Amino acid sequence: MHSTANQTPLSPILVNGVLSHSVDVFDRGFMYGDGLFETIRVVNGEPLLWRYHLKRLQLGCEKLGLPIDSQLFERLRSGLESVVKEAGRSTEICIVKIVISRGVGGRGYQLPEKVNLTEVVICYPAPEFPQSFGLDGVSLVTCRHRLSENPYLAGIKHLNRLDQVLASRELLSSARVSSGTENLVFEGLMLDQSGYMVEGTKSNILLFEKDTIISPCLNKCGVDGVAKNYIFDCAKSLGLNTRTDKILPSAIFKYSGMAITNSVMGIYPVKELDGVKLPINPVVYHIQQLLNEKLMYEYKV
């Protein structure tokens, strides 16, 4: 299986510690989505929120029954440093994706008797977003496609992302023609099968109510984001409380603001949902200031 990344030259990729652009076509990650991944923001060679990424990765390995040897995380860190250096991005911002699969083996869905993990580490350029996204906010639409529910897999970042792929197709048709990015639909809001809010296609959702940050429940589906967890852990330093809740989209207008967050972009206020204007809560800018100071994001706040 060959990489189809549109990077010129091809992004540096380590497969089991060796520079390569292919994995075995019989790899279970390719055949069945039998694996996990993490997408990490790296600044000047330092993987930010590394502890949070490893915690989620470890939980995912435990749930999928992927064996973790004592050197796995050391190999991943060494691999990350290698691809960043190989890409010539040791003194800038870049993105590193780590993929772990169960490897090759087993007939059909039957698990192999002996597991040899496939470990892939890829370095990409960091995406560029307009400064206006952080200042003025972004527009969201509610996706018609709803998330599949599996409480056992809820929270982890497994390789089965078809729900997000199908929902992301809707964003292309929802984008409104404009002379710039002002009306661009940046993200899609995804619901569970009962119609409750869960997450964005590539982000977690935050809502604001007085001195409290609220995140939708992720007990049936969704990814437990590392940036969201970091913000929750830092909330007390901003004088804020946190909680999770079951939230219907119809109730969103009772809150004093909405934001989206992930480890690549940090946090953006939401200015519009389904064409309806939303207030921007100034707490978002306080969180941006925190991320500027602690994680070297570059918001104009």
TrEMBL record:
What's the EC number here?
A: 4.1.3.38
UniProt GO MF annotations: 4-amino-4-deoxychorismate lyase activity; pyridoxal phosphate binding
Name its pathway.
Cofactor biosynthesis; tetrahydrofolate biosynthesis; 4-aminobenzoate from chorismate: step 2/2
Q: Which UniProt keywords apply?
A: Folate biosynthesis, Lyase, Pyridoxal phosphate
Instruction: Report the GO terms under cellular component.
Output: cytosol
Gene3D superfamilies listed in its UniProt record = 3.30.470.10, D-amino Acid Aminotransferase, subunit A, domain 2 (3.20.10.10)
Describe the reaction catalysed, as an equation: 4-amino-4-deoxychorismate = 4-aminobenzoate + pyruvate + H(+)
What are the names of the required cofactors?
Answer: pyridoxal 5'-phosphate
Q: Which family does it belong to?
A: Belongs to the class-IV pyridoxal-phosphate-dependent aminotransferase family.
NCBIfam families for this protein: pabC_Proteo
Subunit composition? Homodimer.
Question: What protein is this chain from?
Answer: Aminodeoxychorismate lyase
